Amino acid sequence: xxxxxxxxxxxxxxxxxxxxxxxxxHYGDTHAIKDVNVEIEDKTVTAFIGPSGCGKSxxxxxxxxxxxxxxxxxxxGDILLDGEDIYDKRVDPxxxxxKVGMVFQKPNPFPKSIYDNxxxxxxxxxxxxNKAELDELVEKSLRRGAIWDEVKDRLDxxxxxxxGGQQQRLCIARAVATEPEVLLMDEPCSALDPIATAQVExxxxxxxxxxxxxxxxxxxxxxxxxxxxxxxxxxGNLVEFGETGQIFTNPEDPRTESYITGRIG
Amino acid sequence: MALSWLLLIxxxxxxxxxxxxxxxxxxxxxxxxxxxxxxxxxxxxxxALTALIPALxxxxxxxxxxxxxxxxxxxxxxxxxxISEGSDRGLVxxxxxxxxxxxxxxxxxxxxxxxQARNADADVQALTQSLKDAGQVLTQDISKPILLAxxxxxxxxxTGSIAMxxxxxxxxxxxxxxxxxxxxxxxxxxNVVEQGILALLxxxxxxxxxxxxxxVLSMLFETMNFFQLHSWKDFFLGxxxxxxxxxxxxxxxxPLLWGTLYISLVALxxxxxxxxxxxxxxxxxxxGATRSIAKPLLEIxxxxxxxxxxxxxxxxxxxxxxxxxxxxxxxxxxxxxSSNAVLTAGLVMGIMxxxxxxxxxxxxxxxxxxxMRDGSLGLGATKSETVRQVVLPxxxxxxxxxxxxxxxRAIGETMIVVMAAGAIAKFSGNxxxxxxxxxxxIVSQLTGDTDFASPETLVAFALGLTLFIITLGLNIFALxxxxxxxEQYE
Lengths: 265, 490
What we know:
InterPro entries (chain B): MetI-like, MetI-like_sf, Phosphate_PstC, PstC_N
Strand order of the largest sheet of chain B: 1-2
Helix content of chain B: over 70%
Shape of chain B: flat
CATH class of the largest domain in chain B: Mainly Alpha
Oligomer: heterodimer
Strand content of chain A: 25-35%
Largest sheet of chain A: 6 strands, mixed
CATH superfamily of the largest domain in chain B: MetI-like
CATH architecture of chain A: 3-Layer(aba) Sandwich
Family (chain B): Belongs to the binding-protein-dependent transport system permease family. CysTW subfamily.
Keywords (chain B): Cell inner membrane, Cell membrane, Membrane, Phosphate transport, Transmembrane, Transmembrane helix, Transport
Number of domains of chain A: 1
Subcellular location (chain B): Cell inner membrane; Cell membrane
Order of helices and strands of chain B: HHHHHHHHEEHHHHHHHHH
CATH topology of chain A: Rossmann fold
Number of strands of chain B: 2
Structural class of chain A: alpha/beta
CATH superfamily of chain A: P-loop containing nucleotide triphosphate hydrolases
Order of helices and strands of chain A: EEEHEEHEHHHHEHEHEEHH
Strand content of chain B: under 5%
Number of helices of chain B: 17
Structural class of chain B: mainly alpha
Low-confidence stretches of chain B: none
Number of strands of chain A: 10
Mean pLDDT of chain A: 88
GO molecular function, one term (chain B): phosphate transmembrane transporter activity
């Protein structure tokens, strides 16, 4: 467990960014998420781990109301972003998603140029007053996505022509460009090779300086490497939530221990 | 022996061959089917197919080739003197055929004996009379050379068909016998039958392709005849369409092409937005229940015969447009004189094309990966922003392909324009005027009394070939674009 020491763990408490209280999610007749209570801190990487089908991706998609696009999905309970209920009628889910950005499992650059991919969000939300500002914003986002040096000479090339790892970093840059407060990542490295994974993980650690990052991952090593807080989901329940070091070295719940030692999964 | 009997004998042979082959295979394995290479029925099929297929092949080729050979032989017999003025060899030959069939008919009804029919010195007038008595159709009295030719025709034809029957039966028997002898438990009947099935499928595919080639060739020959009679410069570069069956016609394709393209353009202006928006609604917004009802309903439009659309244009859309744009109409514009107009035909044709555009576009929009939509929605885009800026650009090549396919249908459409567009060939930009298209002119040049030696008739083939080349080009271009698009996501 040497790799666990790579990330310096700051234990000093930070502001609560997202608070979920008694969240329930139903897919038709299936009760997918049961009574989840969790507090996600600002400027922290929080990892959701758990076996397949445990509801961790579903819960992640509740945090920016992406589940609204699925007809049969029903969410109850409170999810507060900076103290405001995101499921309140006054909240526009479209505006919310600009504040809570998302990166998906498979890199999904639009069939447009690299520049247009990154400029997509700012253009929709009118974040740049003129072309020069937009250029600046695109460059800043690509730098934050740690991909600027690789693409600065071919911003007009299609985003789909990049390698898998580059595509995923482009998608992160694209999400960052709308200046979100929270970044949700749904298994962002599962379609990448180890080298690209390492680059993306390094980037995630860097993003922590500005954003609250929530990452769903199947790889416990990855959770241990990049996160400060870890939540373990099992069969729709949040079994344990705490400091990453604590969860991986001294879990309280026997189910967590079985999972991280490989007995259930 | 009639053809049906021959076919029945072949079939019986195949059935017998099936059971014989099956039992011989079983016998070679001492009745233990597990010792055979293939299932027993495969041995049966092998014998049956080997008997049937080559024999049928020879039968078909013989049936196609024999009339040509007979025709050539007999037509050489007719002296030039027997061809009267104003007639030609082809007409005389059809008279020969009529006499030959007449003789057959008379024999069949018992009015003539076989010997009388074969008698080369028969009294021509008496024979004519007896044929007419027998109710046979003759256009003129039989002359001596025609009678001789007809007798020769009958002779060769009957010898030919006996030879054909012999050949077919021999091939079938030899095939069955060979396959039967080869049948043994080691014999790989299954693989051989597989080859036979492959050949069958190949045959079906090549029939479709050969038919296309045949159509093109037949058009091509008639078109070449046309260009021998009429200058190609007038056809491709002239400006007037004025066919005149007394000669001196001006036959230019350009005014017709203009009408065709103009009406197709109006049709596409209707069909593309409506069809595309319908497809977007169905694929992006409609719930499963709505979609399962709306999509089949939309596709019913595609099943309506075009003649019904033509009636709709003639009875409903045309008068409605006149009451809007015509003299004393609701808008008081007086632009439209008659219900036959580019607008009428274009509107109705556009309605006809809606399901075509919508159903192809719907498939293509559905093929855009969900991850694209998620990516856009996840950035805070609304649904319509996502459709406009991500889904449609991603689906664009496919949609363009769909539109081009619709365009080629619009260009080739006939019934609606015949009934709704009018018959005046001219260059005009006014959509309220009557205009005509290539397809309607083909219809009008070929209906009624036609003389296949005049350029006014033959021009139809030149028009048809041009139309075929235009739509073929559009289709190839559309398929190229669609295929290129598919490579992106698979």
